[in-house]
Amino acid sequence: MQVRLLGPLDVVLDGVAQPVPGRRRRALLAVLAVHCGQTVDTSRIGDLAWGPDAPSRNTLQANVSYLRHTFRLPIVSSAPGYRLDLGADGTDVRQAEDLIRQGGQAAEPADRVARLQAALALWRGLPLADVADVAWAQKQVHRLDVLWLQAKQFLLDAQLGLGEHARLVPDLQQLIEQHPHHEHFHAQLMLALYRSGRQADALAVYDRLQRTLADDVGIDPGPALRELHVTILRHDPVLQLPAPPVAVRPAAAAPAQLPLTLASFTGRSRELAYLDTLLSTGGAAPARLGPVLISAVSGTAGIGKTTLAVHWAHRVRHHFPDGQLYVNLRGFDPGPAAMDPADALRGFLDALAVPAARIPTGLNAQIDLYRSRLAGKRMLVVLDNANHADQVRPLLPGEPGCLAVITSRNQLNGLADTGGFHPLHLDLLTHAEARDLLTQRLGAERTAAEPDAVDTIIARCARLPLALAIVAARAAVKPGFPLATLAAELGDTQGTLDTLHGGEPATDIRSVFSWSYRTLSAGAARLFRLLGLHRGPDIALPAVASLTGLPEHRTQPLLTELTAAHLLIEQESGRYSLHDLLRAYAVELTSVHDGAADRSAALRRLLEHYLHTSYRAERLLRPNREPIELAPPVAGITLVEPADRAQAVAWFTAEQQVLVAAVGHDPGDTGWRPWQLAWSLFTFLSQRSSYRLNVQVQQAGLDAALRAADDAGQGYAHRFLGSLYGRLRDFERAAGHNQRALHYFEQVNDHVVAANIHLTMAWALDEQHRYHEAIPHNERALQAHLAAGNQFGEAVALNNLCMLSVRLGDYPAAEAYGARSLARFTELDDRLGLASTLDTFSLMHFRLGNVEKAADYAHRAITICRELGDRHNEAAILTTLGDGYAATGDLARARDTWREALTILDDLKHGDADKLRAKIAADHAPAEG
C-alpha cells in the first residue's frame, strides 16, 4: 500500500492505483500523507486542508472513516488528532527522498545514476495536482519541486561522471531555459559542451547567464561558475573526464538491459494503471506471478509503445531483483529483416552470463537452457517491436516469477493460448494528454500564454506522440519564438506529402518531419539523410564518421544536433538509432537529395569501416589463421584499432547485429565484397559456438559471391560452410561444401588453404570413426604444408596422423609422427600445440600398457595448460587421463582424475560437466571406501 503525492493524489492498493474522490477527502489525505507517521492536530488538519472552510468535527470523522474503509488506510486516532501509519515507503515522497539520499551516498557513479533515475521516475506530473488550489498544498508543491531539482542536479553530475556529456546537452539546454538563474545547471551544460568539443558554445552559455543575471537580478555569476569559465578558457586538463578503471562485471551480476527512460514522460495514466494491476495477478507478491504477456502495448507506429513499456519497466524494476532483459526485435524495420528469435535468445544467454561452451547448438535446447536459467527467478523481459507471435514464443519465460512485456504494431492474438495473455491497445493521446506533453517539455507558462497555438500544434500532429515530441524539441530550442509562429510554420507544410505507410494515422507525419528537418544545419541534414543507408539496428560514432567522411570531432556535433531535434535517439551505450518512420523518411530524402555517386561513396565508406575493423579484430582472435588480402581502405573512413583480444571480443560483441546485417547488404556498384566480412566474422562466431548464425552469415557471403561471379568468395564460403556443417554433425552437407572449396583452391594453386580443407575433411571422417579414410587427407595436407614451408600446418597434420595411427594400433608410425610434431611445435614455441601432441602420446602409451609413462606425458601437457591459463584444455586432458586409468582397470585413480576435471568444468559451466558427472557415477565404477 502506498499513497502517491508526486502527481494526482491516489492510493496504490494491491498494485492498483485508485483515485480518491472528493476534494475534501483528497486534501485530508494529502495532509496526513505529507506528515506520514506523525500525529496531526484535528484543528491543524482543518486549517491546512480547508482553511476558513474547515468542516465540523463530525464531517472530519466521516471523511477519515471513509478513507479507512474504502482504501484500508491505517489512520490511527491519536490525541489530539490523527496519524497515518504506512511505514518507510508508505508514500512516494518518502520513497523518493530515500532514493535521493542513497544516490547521494553511493560510491559508484553507475549506482548513483540508477538510484536517482528511480527517484525521478516517481514524479508523474505536477505534485498534488488535484489539490493544488489549497494554499498549504502550494507550499508543498514548491518543496517537492525543489526536491526534484536536487535529484536532477545529482543525477546529471553522476551522468557527467560516466562520460555521457554529449547525450546530456539537449536536456541541459531545456533545463536552463526553464531555470534561467540556476547556476549549477549552467555549469553542467558548460562542462558537457566543453567535453563534447564545443568550447565556444560552452563559453557562450556563460556569457548569456552573465547578461541574464545582470539584467534580472543585478549580480554576477558566483565564484564556482567564474572559476569554471576560466578553466574552460585555458583548456585546463582538469576538465577532462578521468579514464575509468577497467571494470570486470561479476559473473553473478543481474542483467540490466533496459534502455534509458524518458525523463519528461507524461500521460498514459490509464495504461500505466492497467499495467500496474498485472503485478498483483495471482497475489501481491511478484514471486507468485505467472508468465504474464502484454502484447498490446500494441498500436500504430509513433504511438509511443516503446516509450510506455520502457518507462513502466523502469518504474517497476525493483519488483524484479534478478534483472531485466531487453531486445529490439526489429519487427517492422524498413531495412533488414526482423530479428531471428535465435539471435535474440543468444543475446539473452550472454546477458545471463552463460559461457559460450555451455550453450547448445540446437534452438530447442537453447530455449530449454534459457528457461532453466529464469526458473525460480523474478525477471522482467521486454520484447520490443515484435512482428508476430512466433517471433516471441521462444523468448517467453516458462515459470511463475517472471513477466514479459511485448510491444508490437500487431495485436499478437496468437499468444492467447499461453494462458497469461493481457492485451493492451495503445491509442492516440487524448487532447489533454497531448497538451500535458507539450507543457512538460515547454513549461506551463509558455503553453498557457498561447492556448490556441497549442491546440493548433496538437491538431496538426494528430495527437501522435512522435510528432509532438519532434515539434516540442524544435520549440524548446527557439524559446523566443511565439508558439503561434511555429504552428503557422508547421501548417505551411501540410498537405504536400503522402502519408507514410498504409494503415498509419490519418496525419501527414512527413510534414512534421520535414518541418523539423529543414531547420537543421546543412551538415546535420546530410547526416540525417545518409543514416537511411545504414542497415543495422544502431550505429556507433566511428561508423557515423565513416558514413559522413568526416573525423569524429566534426561528426559528434552533428549527432548532438540531431538528438536535440528528436530526429535521432542516443542509446545508453552511446550508440544511435532512428525510429523506423524516421528511417523511412531519411531513405526517401537521400534518394532525392543525394546523387547516386554520393550515396554509393558513403555506403562504401561505411561498409569498409566494418570490414577493415573486423579484419583487424579477427587477427587478434586467431593470428595463426592464413590471412586474406584486402584492398586498401578508401579515404575518409574511421577505423577502430582494438589493442588486444579482449577489446576485439568487446567490439565484435557490440557490433554483431550490425555486422551480420552488413554481410547481407547488396553490393550494388560499391565494389563491396560481402564474403570478406563473413570471413572476418567466422572466428568470433565459432568461438562463441554460434554455429547456426555463422552458417547464415557464410551462406549470405556465398550468395553474394555467386551473384557477383566472385570465385574466391565462393571458395572461402564453401570452405567455412564445410567446417560449420561438420560441427553441426551434418556430415553429408559438410562433405559437399568441402569438395567444392577444395576444387576451387586447387585450381588457383593455393596449396595452404587446400591443405587446411583436407585437415577439415579428415577431422569430419575421424568424428565418424572412418579412420582409414581420414589418413590420406592428413597425408595430403602434410605434403602441401611441407612444400609451402608452413611449419604450423605441418605440425598439426603430423599430430593428426599420430592420433589416427594410435586409433588404428600402428604404434611405430604414431611414435614417428608424434616425434616430428613435437619437434615442430617446439621450434615454433607453440606451447598449446605441444600440449596437444603430448596428450596424443599419453593415449598411445596407455594403449601400450606403459601407464606411468602415459601419465607423465599427460601431466606435462596439463602443466603447459595451467601455465597458459587454458582451463578448458586442461580439463579435456584430465578427462582423457582418467579414461586411460579406467581402461587399465585403475578405477580409483580414474575417478580422482575425473573429479579434478569436473571441478574445472563446473567452474567453467561447461556442457560436458554433466556427462563427466554421469561417468563418475556409472555402475561399473567401484564403491568408495
From TrEMBL:
Domain OmpR/PhoB-type: 17-84
UniProt keywords, alphabetically: DNA-binding, Transcription, Transcription regulation
Xref: Pfam families: BTAD, TPR_12
Alphabetized InterPro entries for the sequence: AfsR-DnrI-RedD_regulator, BTAD, OmpR/PhoB-type_DNA-bd, P-loop_NTPase, Sig_transdc_resp-reg_C-effctor, TPR-like_helical_dom_sf, TPR_rpt, WH-like_DNA-bd_sf
Domain Bacterial transcriptional activator: 91-233
Membrane-spanning ranges: none
Protein family membership: Belongs to the AfsR/DnrI/RedD regulatory family.
Name assigned to this protein: BTAD domain-containing putative transcriptional regulator
